[in-house]
User: Fold this.
Amino acid sequence: MTMKANYKPIIILDDDPTGSQSVSQVPVLNDWSKASIQAELEKETSVFFIITNSRALSQIEAQQLNEEIGQTIRSLIKDFYIISRGDSTLRGHFFYEVASLAKGLQWDQEDYLTIFIPAFIEGNRLTKDDTHYLVDQEKWIPIAQTPYAQDKTFGYQHSNLVEFIIEKTNNQIKKVEIQSISIANLEKSDTLFLLEKIQNAKKFLIVNALTYEHIDRFASVIKNSGRKIIFRTSASFAASFGGVKSSKLLSKDEIYQNSPIENGGLIVVGSHVPNTTAQLNQLIQSGIKTIELEVERILHNQSHVEDYLKSLAQQIDDHLADKNDVVLYTSRKLVTGHDETESLKLSVNVSTNLVFIIKNLSIQPKFFISKGGITSSDIATFGLNIKRAIVLGQVEKGISVWQTDESSKFPLMPYIVFPGNVGTPDTLKHVYDKIR
Assistant:
């Protein structure tokens, strides 16, 4: 495989499909086979995403996956940047993914630096004084005081990122091994000072950011560092560092530029965060056709589940053929397990049933909105068989539009990846009104 001597791609491993929510005209891969990654490298693609959906996996599975991808990348190319894109509300396997990725790359534990930048500008998740906040209008809410911190699988107790790292690494990382770059450093210090901070950092470096100007400043400096680095960041840094930041929201015409389908559109809602439920309620009030997937029925009545799911698929097909838009949503009563592992398995089970419904559709929707990270990934990969898609841009802040590839179940369809934690109560309805 021959590549230009100065080719140094930015490879972004995304733990669900929502990390492309700040970029445009960037490919996303839904598999991490050697052939797929090699194809992007042969094209000399400057930035590309690999959707691992590792947030839907157990810790051990996530570690194995990241180590495997690290080994594959190492076998194909020697000079690259690597970003582990995680949730800006701090849910995910975090430390274990980064450590396993480094292991696969054969980077010694003492030989690389983890740079942690969770600020997500579009979503008002901002970091100052090493503390991560959700900013709601004028209220700065420490992230550990939000519903995201109560996540049954990925909950946490600390908003201060130093304490968060110590908590999530089970004290494997000590306070003295964690340094940070402040807002004042980014605004007032020269490049040499910042490079020295990076060079002298031990194992973790926290980067505070309140605006894209802060992220852009750091992104421009870090490329001059000679250290081996794994970035654990939100979507905003990936967009800035790759130079693929979206400049404007997509128009309706841009979303449908290659899609001639005139059937009804489909919205699937799997996420259970309070924000999603509030958005779903507003959408339902608009009069859209509704189909509820009764979660307790599929969990407790296994003998007739397949017939039930096929009947829902047929109902969706009937609505789409009649040019009616329809929303398929999981029942809102959250079913949880006895512990983190069992709760995650239940979530995956529900997502698997949503995928079964999508696989049994025969009518191509005019558009497809998928609400929720795990939901979006499973539907894209297993329901729609999307191997590679192009991110056209965003329909609203933090909400990406993919164009499906020719080989997918529904070719050249706008597939809208709508994170569960993005938007206000009227955002889902607003997006629907924009594209309907």
Q: What stands out?
A: DSSP finds 15 helices and 18 strands in the chain. Residues 10-242 form a domain with the Rossmann fold fold (CATH 3.40.50.10840).
